[in-house]
Design goal:
- It is built from eight helices and ten strands.
- The chain has helices spanning about 40-50, 70-85, 95-100, 145-150, 160-165, 165-175, 190-205, 220-225; strands at about 1-5, 15-20, 20-30, 60-65, 90-95, 110-115, 120-130, 130-140, 155-160, 175-180.
- The protein is globular.
- About 40% of the residues are buried.
Length: about 230
């Protein structure tokens, strides 16, 4: 099953094309521009490099949260637009799950942490064992010092939040915490495609209108409206 996957949840933008669990092509950029300026070009260049067109794709995948509100909207709307035009099924994938999977070779607790700005992080807890990844603590958003109180050791931390608050995490958790290599701290679209393939195989094909952004917290506009 050929899957085109997109991640625009953070400052990096990643696009990949896979066939079941095999990578065909992948491209990632860390250019700090709005992803709407280059996402479609990246998709077009990726398909051209693989000498394939959209007719060869069997499904679409996109990170639907948590992450940048604007980034998530760009990724989800782009993929849903492609699904509407082609009739292809779409699968939404958690950025936290994707990050944890990128270090699933580590046997033990994994805490993906994404910088949520406003001195907060998005995080969840997973347990990796024998090539499987199981959710242990539901996704949450909060101040790093409060999040750290809910974490158990030994563990591994990964993500932009782990990178940003590395010193605080190390001070609080001591020698029982490990950190992922620097290049692993960003979601890889190939990981998103692989997780989507697994979900398609287990749960069937999703319709595009069922995939919506999962922001995990209210936007500034919603908070201001409440006030």
């Amino acid at each position: 099953m050929k899957i085109l996957a997109v991640d625009t949840s953070t400052q990096t933008c990643s696009v990949a094309l896979t066939d079941n669990d095999e990578l065909i092509a992948e491209t990632t950029t860390g250019i700090r521009q709005t992803h709407s300026k280059h996402l479609m070009d990246m998709i077009a260049q990726l398909l051209a490099g693989a000498k394939l067109d959209t007719n060869a794709i069997d499904g679409l995948a996109v990170v639907n949260g948590p992450g940048s509100f604007t980034g998530l909207r760009i990724g989800v709307s782009t993929v849903k637009g492609m699904a509407s035009a082609t009739g292809m099924p779409v699968c939404g994938v958690s950025a936290l799950e994707a990050l944890a999977w990128q270090c699933q070779a580590y046997a033990g607790r994994i805490y993906p942490m994404i910088d949520a700005r406003k001195a907060e992080v998005y995080t969840a807890g997973y347990l990796a064992s024998s090539g499987t990844l199981n959710l242990q603590k539901d996704a949450q958003v909060g101040a790093p010092d409060k999040v750290l109180k809910t974490m158990e050791t030994p563990c591994l931390c990964i993500g932009t939040g782990a990178l940003l608050y590395k010193e605080m995490i190390a001070t609080h958790l001591g020698s029982d915490v490990r950190f992922a290599p620097a290049l692993r701290n960003h979601v890889q679209a190939s990981t998103v495609a692989f997780l989507a393939w697994q979900k398609f195989e287990c749960e069937g094909l999703d319709l595009g209108d069922q995939v919506t952004p999962d922001y995990l917290r209210k936007s500034d506009a919603q908070l201001n409206l409440q006030r």
